[in-house]
């Protein structure tokens, strides 16, 4: 879903999960903040790799140069390799949310499993282990971007395993067990609150950005793109795409007939309702994520139809014309207004890179057709090719 098509009305945050309620919005949000999230994750992965290996020195210091100490160091190196593998995967697929989430989750699961093994073989350093577990839990919540649900599962799950391990090893007195449990709960609660706040504020910021973008790009009355979007290159981009792939491109310029009369007879507010109704029809009858409807002027709209031949664009314009002409717009109780509209279509069939075509030329051609319809009595559709299809190349005589 392109960012400009993300309606702000769909951006409801489920505060319990700290995610957007609509999965499509959540997916778009994650894609939007992936570069920032990957930058943070890459730093965290490198730190994790470095610290895990460096802390191998404590294994030697505690256990001496024994087989177990070297086995623990080997496990630490394995964690570093998983972290570096995740780092490389993110560098290779920087656009993949799944890769980012996978790298984060894989490292945390492996690192915490190895940490449990290290703690198991070094029960004498319990206070340090508890402190390390609390720090790791904070890092899980704050430094490794992930879904809040996964983070809670990893943080709370590892704390439960760590606590159970200490009880099984039997080095703790009853009051120490209580302190340990409370410390683990505290680190998880603090981490959870920080992570939840971060998740929510990132999404709130995304909503504000989308709202600003919508206000800048959309016409408030009809919800269509405004002229600014056109000037920023919406049609120019479609022309470039058509040129690159040699595909057809059509535009339809349409205008409500005698709209001034509606305003004069029923008032400006009623005119607004007819305008919004017409725009709604244009948006409903075109392809949601492919075509674009632009409010080009007061009661004039431009429809951009990528990969559409003239016959298809004419058929669409005729369908819209007939539907609008037969529809009635309710402007007040028991007051319906009907209107018609005129359509001018211009098409560039299977575009050739050499054709010197501009946005202005395409719109002018559609405008000329619209002008012809208006002068021919209105409520009609006319279209033209901007360039005739090239002559087939003949070989031999
Ligand atoms: N209600 C309302 N009216 C608007 C809006 N924008 C432009 N108009 C009015 O639309 C009318 C357009 O009138 P004209 O350009 O004469 O066109 P027309 O009456 O539709 O006549 P033809 O296009 O020749 O069929 C003007 O009266 C504008 O004031 C708007 O946002 N809301």
TrEMBL record:
KW NADP (keyword) present: no
A GO molecular-function annotation: diguanylate cyclase activity
Catalytic activity line of the entry: 2 GTP = 3',3'-c-di-GMP + 2 diphosphate
EC code(s) of this entry: 2.7.7.65
The UniProt record lists the keyword Transmembrane: yes
Superkingdom of origin: Bacteria
GO biological process annotation, one example: cell adhesion involved in single-species biofilm formation
Transmembrane regions listed in the UniProt entry: 45-62, 68-90, 102-120, 151-171, 177-195
GO CC terms in record: plasma membrane
Domain GGDEF span(s) in chain numbering: 247-386
Keywords tagged on the record: Membrane, Transmembrane, Transmembrane helix
Family matches, as InterPro entries: Diguanylate_Cyclase, GGDEF_dom, Nucleotide_cyclase, Rev_trsase/Diguanyl_cyclase
CDD domains, A to Z: GGDEF
Pfam families in the cross-refs: GGDEF (PF00990)
Coiled-coil blocks: none
SUPFAM superfamilies according to UniProt: Nucleotide cyclase (SSF55073)
Root EC class: transferase
Name the UniProt record assigns to this protein: diguanylate cyclase
Organism per entry: Pseudoduganella albidiflava
Source organism phylogeny: Bacteria, Pseudomonadati, Pseudomonadota, Betaproteobacteria, Burkholderiales
């Amino acid at each position: 879903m392109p960012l400009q098509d993300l309606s702000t009305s769909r951006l409801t945050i489920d505060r319990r999960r700290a995610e957007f309620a609509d999965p499509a919005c959540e997916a778009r949000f994650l894609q939007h903040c992936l570069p920032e999230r990957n930058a943070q994750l890459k730093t965290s992965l490198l730190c994790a790799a470095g610290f895990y290996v460096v802390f191998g020195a404590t294994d030697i210091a505690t256990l001496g140069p024994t087989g177990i100490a070297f086995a623990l160091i080997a496990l630490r190196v394995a964690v570093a390799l998983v972290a570096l593998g995740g780092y490389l995967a993110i560098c290779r697929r920087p656009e993949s949310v799944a890769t980012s989430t996978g790298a984060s989750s894989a490292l945390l699961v492996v690192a915490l499993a190895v940490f449990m093994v290290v703690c198991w073989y070094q029960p004498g350093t319990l206070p340090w282990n508890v402190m390390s577990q609390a720090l790791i839990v904070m890092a899980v919540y704050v430094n490794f971007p992930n879904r809040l649900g996964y983070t809670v599962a990893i943080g709370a799950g590892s704390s439960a395993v760590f606590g159970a391990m200490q009880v099984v090893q039997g080095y703790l007195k009853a009051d120490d067990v209580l302190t340990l449990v409370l410390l683990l709960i505290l680190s998880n609660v603090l981490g959870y609150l920080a992570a939840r706040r971060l998740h929510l504020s990132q999404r709130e910021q995304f909503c504000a950005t989308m709202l600003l973008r919508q206000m800048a790009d959309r016409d408030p009355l009809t919800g269509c793109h405004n002229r600014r979007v056109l000037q920023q290159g919406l049609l120019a981009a479609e022309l470039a795409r058509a040129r690159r792939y040699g595909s057809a491109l059509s535009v339809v310029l349409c205008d409500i007939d005698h709209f001034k009369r509606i305003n004069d007879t029923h008032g400006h507010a009623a005119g607004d309702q007819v305008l919004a109704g017409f725009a709604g029809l244009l948006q409903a009858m075109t392809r949601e994520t492919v075509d674009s409807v632009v409010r080009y002027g007061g009661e004039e709209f431009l429809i951009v139809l990528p990969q559409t031949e003239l016959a298809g664009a004419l058929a669409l314009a005729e369908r819209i014309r007939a539907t609008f002409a037969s529809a009635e717009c309710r402007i007040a109780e028991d007051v319906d207004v009907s209107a018609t509209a005129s359509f001018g279509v211009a098409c560039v069939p299977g575009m050739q890179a050499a054709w010197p075509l501009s946005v202005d030329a395409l719109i002018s051609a559609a405008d000329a057709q619209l002008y012809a319809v208006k002068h021919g009595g209105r409520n009609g559709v006319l279209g033209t090719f901007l360039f005739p299809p090239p002559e087939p190349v003949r070989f031999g005589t």
